[in-house]
Write a structure and sequence with these properties.
Residues 1-224 form the tRNA methyltransferase TRMD/TRM10-type domain. This is tRNA (guanine-N(1)-)-methyltransferase. With 239 residues, the protein is an alpha/beta fold. Helix content is 36%, strand content 16%. The protein folds into two domains: 2-153, Alpha/beta knot (3-Layer(aba) Sandwich); 168-238, Orthogonal Bundle (Trp Operon Repressor, Chain A), CATH 1.10.1270. A five-stranded parallel β-sheet has the order 2-1-6-5-7. Strands 3-4 form a two-stranded antiparallel ribbon. The structure holds S-adenosylmethionine. S-adenosylmethionine (SAM) is lined by residues 87-90, 112-114, 116-118, 132-134, 136-141, 144.
């Protein structure tokens, strides 16, 4: 998969992508991340990328032309079709289902705003989709781009050392993940639940399912509406 990022801070994106699972996915040739700085496409000795908003008011707005030139350079760098996504607090909230959809694409292009945002005409003409990483306002789209890069990198086949681990994560089956424990069995903070050392795989699976159901009910009850619950699940939740 190829991800292009339009950002005034492409080094930040490169740094974020260099570590952990994302870094390994890049090393293994499963993913490539390319930064494009609109300032490199700006004109004049100041290489200006922003200007004051029409109508007055605070802040600056990102100019159309440097962004459009950077978008074109990024698109032309590879012949594969690309979906252009603007990171904005006004976009659709990012979900694990959306991450799966993006991870299955061969190529995406992430557009990061700064200041008050981007001239709306560029958004209307060039953007396919707007995504938000939450109901709060950041000073730039770079953290959102880094979030998407990380989330899609770990879904690339071969990125995780254990292929099953992503399938068991929160949201994959609609529920939150169960709690996890490791050595030591006894600790001053408590003991590991005995069922996990029973060797009874059916019992362990049942316990984990019930923990997931209980956590989801307690922390994110609205998620249960989208889950295909078995009769045993319903009985457990009712009890
Ligand atoms: N004036 C804009 C508004 O209120 O909708 C906010 C602009 S924000 C200060 C600057 C840039 O940060 C945005 O253009 C966007 O790229 C990015 N950004 C801020 N919050 C974000 C969020 N929750 N999700 C994704 N991107 C965000």
């Amino acid at each position: 998969m190829r991800i292009d990022v339009i950002s005034l801070f492409p080094d930040f994106i490169a740094q974020c992508a260099a570590f952990g699972v994302t870094g390994r996915a890049i090393e293994r040739g499963l993913l490539s991340v390319h930064g494009w700085n609109p300032r490199d496409h700006a004109e004049g000795s100041y290489r200006r990328v922003d200007d004051r908003p029409f109508g007055g008011g605070p802040g600056m707005v990102m100019l159309i032309d440097p962004l459009r030139a950077a978008l074109r350079a990024a698109r032309d760098a590879d012949p594969a079709p690309v979906r252009t996504i603007y990171l904005t607090p006004q976009g659709a909230p990012l979900t694990q289902a959306k991450v799966h959809e993006l991870a299955e694409r061969g190529r995406i292009l992430l557009l990061c705003g700064r200041y008050e945002g981007i001239d709306e005409r560029l958004v209307e003409a060039e953007v396919d989709e707007e995504i938000s990483i939450g109901d709060y306002v950041l000073s730039g789209g770079e953290l959102g781009a880094a979030v998407i890069i990380d989330a899609v990198a770990r879904l690339q086949e071969g990125a995780l050392n254990d292929a099953d681990s992503a399938a068991q994560d929160s949201f994959e089956n609609g529920l939150l993940d169960c709690p996890h424990y490791t050595r030591p069995v006894e600790h001053e903070l408590g003991a590991v639940p005995p069922v996990l050392m029973s060797g009874n795989h059916a019992e362990i699976a049942r316990w984990r399912r019930q923990q997931s159901l209980e956590r989801t009910l307690r922390r994110r009850p609205e998620l249960l509406d989208g889950v295909d619950l078995s009769p045993a699940d319903r009985q457990f939740l009712a009890g």
